[in-house]
Amino acid sequence: MANSKTITSNDWLSYTSFLVLVFAMVAPIGEGLLIAFAVVFLAVGISSAVHSAEVIAERVGPALGTLILAISVTVIEVALIVSLMSNDTADSPQIARDTVFAALMIVTNGIIGICILLGGLKHKELGFQLVGTTALLGVLAVLSTLTLILPLYTTSTNKGTYSAGQLIFVSLASLVLYGSLVWSQTKSNKNFFSASEGELAPVVTTHTRPSQKRAITSFISLLFSLFAVVGLSKILSPTIENTISALGAPKAVVGIVIAILVLAPETLAAMNAAKINELQTSLNLALGSGAASIALTIPAVSLYSLLFDKPLTLGLNTKGIVFLMVTFLAGSFTFGSGRTTSLHGLIHLVIMASFLAISLMP
């Protein structure tokens, strides 16, 4: 089986991504060719890192596994954000806000919308755990309010920003809330986040737990992938911003691009779960990724901002607040009964399409 192999194709991709980074740093190749290689292997590195983290998670169990996967994805997201913030452009202070907000919109409307639509078209009606799902949605609502809305109403600093003390408090509060969510999912209330009675029984497979050697190899591959992603994102950061400017698109689109890159693996996994009538798994992946994106990324970026004296703007504009409100309003209807259909999915996809359209055509 795949897990019995000491070194898999995914490991080789991780090592190759790292070698491409080293080559890009020392080899005098043309800029166009360098950018092409960097783009391809940035995507490869992100995918390899998430896959390696998933293998480790299977070995160490759900509690540590959830943290490992979340931290790995956060490292990637923070690397992309920090690489762009370090360019010190006029829009650098908003990069973290735009990325986190885009990730929130993608998970709550894009990923959930397509999962419910696909699952609903195939199975007509989908079931999920009401208590666990509303808890996830509640955590997301509080985190988004603390980080994206409350900065607009503080008075000790400029509108949309936090003082150093406020940043520290909000970061600690976010970490405590996310830690409590992980504890609830993996220890105290696991049954609230498992498949509901309305879902099909899980398919029995011959998939075995990875060996210790396989887990160690995956951990090494994870480190190589993360180094590659951090380095390649730094190389690509000016190109990303220049491309957005050349296209005449608003700077907020940079955050959307970063969020799409980071959330691509979770999106595929959530869609596959929905197709086999395991919507709860899809919701755990999507909403859990959204919570981690806010609760882990904001503290990390805040620490960078405080240590290197970089300005950080978190408060949304009016359009963003409207999208946030309609997202949670629609979510309260979608997840209010424990059952959902393809129509609910279409509602969220319309919100997502509107968000993208208004972002590109402000």
From TrEMBL:
Keyword annotations of the record: Membrane, Transmembrane, Transmembrane helix
Chief location: membrane
GO MF annotation list: potassium:proton antiporter activity; sodium:proton antiporter activity
InterPro entries cross-referenced by the UniProt entry: Alkaline_pH_Ca-Antiporter, NaCa_Exmemb
Any one of the GO CC terms: plasma membrane
Stretches that traverse the bilayer: 12-29, 35-57, 64-85, 100-121, 128-150, 162-183, 215-232, 252-271, 283-308, 320-336, 343-361
Recorded superkingdom: Bacteria
Residue ranges constituting the Sodium/calcium exchanger membrane region domain according to the UniProt record: 33-186, 218-360
Intracellular or extracellular location(s): Membrane
Membrane topology field: Multi-pass membrane protein
Keyword Transmembrane helix: yes
Stated name of the protein: Ionic transporter y4hA
Organism: Leptospira bourretii
Lineage: Bacteria, Pseudomonadati, Spirochaetota, Spirochaetia, Leptospirales
